[in-house]
């Protein structure tokens, strides 16, 4: 019994250490301009993303799209050059994504929808210096400055939890009379796979005017 308990404690400790260090990556820049009851308002400056369009719910899209875009940053490009992982990985509806300055061929609510999985590119890169993807499903996109309402939470990654938090944020914005660009929400995940649920940083975001 004692041996089993010791093993369990060791597994949890090692798991915690893995989650902490595996999630220490460069994060997308933003400024918090206001804090509300349950969420905050952020402004994200112009930045570059590598993205791919997939279909399915948030969980299905994340699994499929992550694999596609991760292939690009792990060397699937014309320079065979690895690109540092950043956070968050986002999942949003393809209809809401802005395809600006596209140079070449990971964010979900509902089911069976087209979604865009996006990885924020390290700020050291420009459109000219980013290597060209070899997978035509991967696109490099320049995203303009945007303002978002963001609700942060933790827990096991699941489609039901994402939908619950997305609906909660939407209700909060409607209650506060915040003008939204769209009622669709984007999921943002900041942690490495298999991070302990209480250590995860997850967010739902709605673009506002």
If you had to describe this structure to a student in words, what would you say it looks like?
This protein is an alpha+beta fold. 26% of the residues lie in helices and 29% in strands. The protein has three helices and eleven strands; from the N terminus they run αββββαβββββαββ. The protein has helices spanning 2-22, 58-73, 159-176; strands at 26-27, 31-35, 40-44, 47-56, 86-87, 89-93, 113-120, 139-143, 146-153, 186-189, 202-207. The strands form two sheets. The chain has a nine-stranded antiparallel β-sheet, covered by helices on one side. Strands 1-5 form a two-stranded parallel ribbon. A hairpin with a 4-residue loop joins β2 (31-35) and β3 (40-44). The radius of gyration is 18 Å and the shape is globular. The termini are far apart. Mean pLDDT is 81; it is low at 8-23 and 95-111.
Which properties best describe this structure?
single chain, 209 residues, alpha+beta, two-stranded parallel ribbon, 11 strands, 29% strand
- Overall strand count: 11
Radius of gyration computed on alpha carbons = 18 Å
Mean pLDDT: 81
Strand order across the largest sheet: 2-3-9-11-10-6-7-4-8
The level of helicity is 25-40%
Outline type = globular
Order of helices and strands: HEEEEHEEEEEHEE
Number of helices: 3
Low-pLDDT stretches are: 8-23, 95-111
**DSSP strand content:** 25-35%
**Largest sheet geometry:** 9 strands, antiparallel
Which structural class fits the helix and strand makeup?
Answer: alpha+beta
């Amino acid at each position: 019994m004692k041996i089993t308990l010791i093993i369990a404690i060791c597994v949890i400790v090692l798991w915690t250490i893995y989650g902490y260090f595996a999630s220490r990556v460069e994060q997308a820049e933003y400024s918090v301009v206001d804090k509300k009851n349950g969420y905050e308002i952020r402004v994200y400056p112009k930045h570059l993303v590598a993205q791919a369009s997939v279909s399915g719910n948030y969980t299905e899209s994340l699994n499929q799209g992550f694999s596609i875009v991760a292939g690009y940053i792990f060397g699937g490009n014309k320079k065979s050059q690895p690109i540092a992982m950043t956070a968050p990985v986002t999942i949003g509806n393809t209809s809401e994504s802005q395809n600006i300055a596209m140079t070449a061929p990971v964010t979900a609510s509902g089911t069976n929808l087209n979604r865009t999985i996006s990885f924020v590119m390290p700020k050291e890169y420009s459109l000219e210096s980013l290597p060209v993807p070899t997978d035509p499903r991967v696109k490099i996109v320049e995203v303009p400055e945007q303002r978002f309402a963001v609700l942060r939470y933790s827990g096991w990654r699941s489609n039901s939890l994402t939908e619950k938090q997305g609906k909660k944020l939407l209700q909060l914005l409607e209650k506060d009379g915040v003008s939204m660009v769209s009622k669709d929400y984007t999921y943002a995940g900041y942690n490495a796979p298999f991070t302990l649920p209480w250590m995860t940083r997850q967010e739902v975001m709605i673009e506002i005017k």
